[in-house]
User: What shape does this take?
Amino acid sequence: MFDWIRRLVLQVMRVPHDPAPPLGAPGSVRVFRAGRNYYKLRVFRWGLGQCGALVGIVVSLSFLGWFKLEVESARRAQAVAVAPAQPPAPPTAPATGRKAARPRSDPKQDLRRLAARTPGWVIPVIAGFEIWGILLFVLQLPVTFAVVRLDFEMHWYIVTDRSLRIRTGLLRLQESTMSFANLQQVEVKQGPLQRLLGLADVHVQSAGGGGGHEPGQAGDSLHTGIFHSVNNATEIRDLILERLRQFRQAGLGDPDDHGHPAASPSPAPGDALAAARELLAEARALRQSLG
Assistant: This one.
């Protein structure tokens, strides 16, 4: 069931296939994912949202049910013979020096008067809204849960011996690639909730990047990449620093050129002598023209 929903959501969102490794040796590819506790946290937040929606539906259904009963009661009261009206009470003179107090409005009585003036065709409409509200709540449960799980699965962190690639997001897909040639800083950041769950963020900054980015805002800067909510942040940091050290020791040449550069052929002695004679003749001709 979930696989079918997963394929449907990926097709509707037009999410591309899994990211390919960035530039680097095939044997050096390391793939990291977000921590399992991060997924549990997302599911917990999703559950809280669904509970809030369920409470709202129950409250609204209770109000609509009460309003429907009031409308039916008003309709039955209108069908009964109206009792003779009692004579109005004589008006009382207001007290001197005091303002007459306004009668306080009762919201419940106002709603009852509104229900008495409501036509009968409103009752089927209210029942239809109740049914549609329940159906929509039930139908969105597997879809929203699949979105939460797929958003967790879309966290890709790939490191090679020459570069790294970060892809996150489902509704808003973000992918960035950073070369070790421009890498300047690698640090680990951990908030209180992440510390409780055993998670942390690895911030990678390249040349030209500035600070001021909050955790979880990967992609907001072209010079900053974030391994968000991983459970092995120290391992990732040490791996990047070690490969960065090896990359700088190896030099900054073309990564595809692993051999020694070919030596340029030295000119033959005869060719060098002919070139020197030709240069001398041109110098003499230039001197004569100036004289």
